[in-house]
Amino acid sequence: MENYQSLVEKQRAYFQIGKTKEVTYRIKALEKLRQAIRNYEAEFMKALNDDLNKTEFDAYATEIGFVLHEIRFVLKHLRSWTKPHKVKTPMTHLGSTSMIYPEPYGVALIVAPWNYPFQLAVAPLIGAIAAGNCAILKPSELTPKTSALLARLVKETFSEEYISVVEGGIETSQALLREQFDYIFFTGSVPVGKVIMEAAAKKLTPVTLELGGKSPCIVTEDANLKIAAKRIAWGKFMNSGQTCIAPDYLYVHINVKERFLTLLKEAIDDMFGQENTFTKIVSERHFLRLKEFLLDGTIYTGGETNQQSLMIKPTVLTNITWDDRVMEDEIFGPILPVLEFEEIEEVIRQIQQKPNPLALYIFSENQEKQQRVINNISFGGGCINDTVYHITSPYLPFGGVGSSGIGAYHGKGSFDTFSHEKSVLKQTTKFDIPFRYPNVKDGLKKIKMFLK
Ligand code: NAD
After folding, report:
1. Whose alpha carbon is nearest atom 6 of ligand 1?
2. How far is the CA of 164 from the centre of ligand 1 (A)?
3. CA 388, 390, 392, 396 torsion: positive or negative?
């Protein structure tokens, strides 16, 4: 049976020396990581192509470039984030000052999925390093080339007691979960998120869970339909729909549905017309699951599949209801079911009945409708008049709520996620306010003046 006790102990011992807490050490580590990624850029492009048929454009824009940009942002701000900062002290604490010290947790475990196998492994690692932790990274077994290359990069760049990659599947992940970590950062599906949280609960380990779910996209009657069609086609069909925050399904106003669908088809043909540039479906099991959904409703466009190359053409399904199988769980593929609506309230009510989405998108020129949707539905994050784009801003913490996840990261959010805020009160010894002691005359009366 796999056992990672000695690796975790080695990392904890290294953490306790205190090296990883030094800000210059963290900065150097991030610079080394950046350089290593640059050195391996071409190899990662190839690995991502072998694993998922990602084009160089996609591999750079959504994985490598994304991560380099994140490192750059963190390096720019890290010194100021790491500084202990003073906060207010109330009158009742006269003579003292109050400080918050951001401190690393210790040894972090990062478990990553396959859909953006580079970005979703390295972006949390940046946070772990920035906050001063040691880390063990477990990439997905379903993208073996990228996993092996990550392991090589990390081995060549960092000592094992600082950062390590452990490759493997479910058993490896479970063997790691038997160890005592100080933080667990998981990205993946809702069912596995529950497994992770249960294992963490046994050891009271804090977690971030970046999960998934069905993310709605609403197009109202007054939306700019042409822009909506383009941005929805982009966000849905990039990476062949295997994006946690891709619009899962559409709600389109009945009066604009036909016109919108025509524009959507045009946008799909424009952007995703060349078959050999599709990201492939990650495995035959995933492919066959998706293929079943093509039997639901009516195929408006797309529908062609190729089991040999594991490709499914961007597909739009109409005549869909909530009883169709495609509407049961997160689709996670290039299939977009379309529902229609007349009143925005119906849409809000329907979505409120479902688990909290990871993302939500509304296309509308009407501010009141925009605000009604944003204020009445609880979801992780999202966009007004766009899809997916919110994930690329380092100023917007990214994460879910309810069943779509716990916690958030990116930019300062990543630093905060991997840091504990240690609150410290520094008291004066020059005087001693007497009321707090139980033996003072009229103590209760005096204390009631302050604590009311
Ligand atoms: P997954 O949950 O099957 O696997 C994720 C990781 O967990 C892998 O490393 C895998 O080896 C490990 N794992 C799988 N089963 C396990 C088990 N029983 N015990 C312990 N570890 C286990 O997810 P996936 O299929 O790789 O990714 C797709 C899912 O991830 C989708 O639901 C998607 O929405 C979600 N996702 C979320 C985000 C986000 O940022 N919120 C990003 C990408 C993907």
Report:
1. 113
2. 20
3. negative
* Residue in this structure with the two tokens 């290294």, named with its chain if needed: 14
The rounded Å distance from CA 427 to ligand 1 centre is 47
> Which domain does 311 fall in, by range?
216-399
- Closest atom, ligand 1, to C-alpha of 330: 32
The CATH number that applies at residue 169 is 3.40.605.10
Nearest-CA residue for atom 32 of ligand 1: 189
For 139-179, how does the pLDDT look when each residue is reduced to its tens digit (9 = 90+)?
A: 999 999 999 999 999 999 999 999 999 999 999 999 999 99
383 and 349 within one domain: yes
Q: Are 200 and 192 in contact (CB under 8 A)?
A: no
Same domain (yes/no): 258, 375:
yes
Q: Measured from the CB, is residue 189 less than 6 Å from ligand 1?
A: yes
Q: How wide is the angle at C-alpha 389 spanned by C-alphas 121 and 412, nearest 5°?
A: 55
Mode of pairing for the β-strands spanning 134-138 and 107-111:
parallel
**Residues designated as active site:** 210, 244
431 inside domain: no
User: Is any ligand 1 atom within 6 A of the Cβ of residue 170?
Assistant: yes
Q: Which amino acid is at 116?
A: Y
Select from 125, 142, 189, 194 the residue to mutate for testing ligand 1; criterion: most ligand atoms less than 8 Å from CB: 189
pLDDT per residue over 302-313, tens digit each?
999 999 999 999
pTM above 0.85, yes or no: yes
C-alpha span between 284 and 290 (Å, rounded): 10
Signed CA dihedral, 162, 163, 165, 166: sign only = positive
CATH number of the CATH domain containing 246: 3.40.309.10
